[in-house]
Design a protein that fits this description.
This protein is α+β, with helices and mostly antiparallel strands. It folds into 2 domains: about 45 residues, no CATH class; about 40 residues, no CATH class. Helix content is about 25%, strand content about 20%. It contains 3 helices and 4 strands. A two-stranded parallel ribbon has the order 1-2. A two-stranded antiparallel sheet has the order 3-4. Helix 2 links the parallel strand 1 and strand 2. The longest helix is centred in the N-terminal third of the chain and has 8 residues. The protein is flat and about 50 Å long.
């Protein structure tokens, strides 16, 4: 349905979902060949783990596969408690 709306209006579509739909099951099909036509705004599930960006590859040969995630930042609950504004 989001693809039909975008095709009709020819504008960027903002898809707003709750925590159950804001996952890769919805985002992956929209993102394929979209060229920035879609934006997804979703409430994150509180049990999801947040990760920092992956380290930059320096070109040195290291054992194993390059990391796809950086350091673990914690769950959404952990981060919300740590970075809560006064």
């Amino acid at each position: 349905m989001a693809k039909d709306v975008q095709a009709y209006y020819q504008k960027t579509v903002l898809v707003v979902t709750d925590s159950w739909f804001g996952n890769n099951g919805l985002w992956a099909p929209l993102k394929q060949g979209a060229d920035g036509k879609y934006r997804l705004l979703s409430r994150m599930r509180t049990n999801i783990a947040l990760w920092d960006f992956a380290p930059i590859v320096t070109g040195k040969k290291e054992r194993g596969r390059p990391r796809i995630y950086g350091n673990r930042l914690g769950s959404v609950d952990d981060c919300a408690a740590r970075w809560q504004l006064p």
